[in-house]
Amino acid sequence: MRYSDGPTTEAQTVIHAPVGVVWALITDIDLPAQFSSEFQGADWLDDGPALGARFTGRNQHVAIGDWQSTCTVTRFTPLETFEWAVGDPDHSSARWRFSLEPATDGVGLRQWMQMGPAPSGLTPAIEAMPDKEERIIARRLKEHQANMQATVDGVKHLAENAATDPNQTP
């Protein structure tokens, strides 16, 4: 597995709540910060969520430090798909997506991400240790997948609680 291959990972769950409740949660760009150990939050630069809208995301990682990235919404199909590219939308360092699909008694939620093709914070480590590229990528994908699973599980918890308690807002 090489960075240039655009490696991916994903996390998913089934949520027993109305699709509109889940959609409102996944399009709140700041919400994943409640669940991720790396993502620290985000702020819209344009009116969003909407196709083409930009936001700045803040991240922190023990090996990399703190950084910010400008992201652009590249796919936006209400109640179905919310995707953004990190950096240049035509040559991004990563692409992230939430997608919803009907499921028995609820909605299937999937979070997906792809590394590359543009350089990222991982690039210096790969350049310094090219013989360990596969291990570096595998470890990073494992970190992403763990944070993504925590996020989809957190969205599930919030959405299902909101669906059963009309006084609670998602």
What would you note in describing this structure?
- Helix 1 packs across helix 3.
- The chain has helices spanning 19-26, 123-128, 133-164, and strands spanning 8-15, 39-44, 54-61, 65-77, 81-86, 94-103, 106-115.
- The N and C termini lie far apart (38 Å).
- It is globular and about 50 Å long.
- With 170 residues, the protein is of the alpha+beta class.
- The protein has a 7-stranded antiparallel sheet with strand order 1-7-6-5-4-3-2, with helices on one face.
- The chain has one domain: Alpha-D-Glucose-1,6-Bisphosphate, Chain A, domain 4 (2-Layer Sandwich), CATH 3.30.530.
- The longest helix has 32 residues, at 133-164.
- The model has no long low-confidence stretch (mean pLDDT 93).
Portion in helices: 25-40%
CATH domain topology: Alpha-D-Glucose-1,6-Bisphosphate, Chain A, domain 4
How far apart lie the N and C ends?
38 Å
Number of strands: 7
Order of helices and strands: EHEEEEEEHH
**Radius of gyration, whole Å:** 16 Å
**In terms of structural class, how would the helical and strand content be classed?**
alpha+beta
- Mean pLDDT, to the nearest integer, reads 93
Largest sheet: 7 strands, antiparallel
- What best-fitting shape do the alpha-carbon axes yield? globular
Per DSSP, what share of the residues sits in E-state strands of 2 or more residues? 35-45%
Number of domains: 1
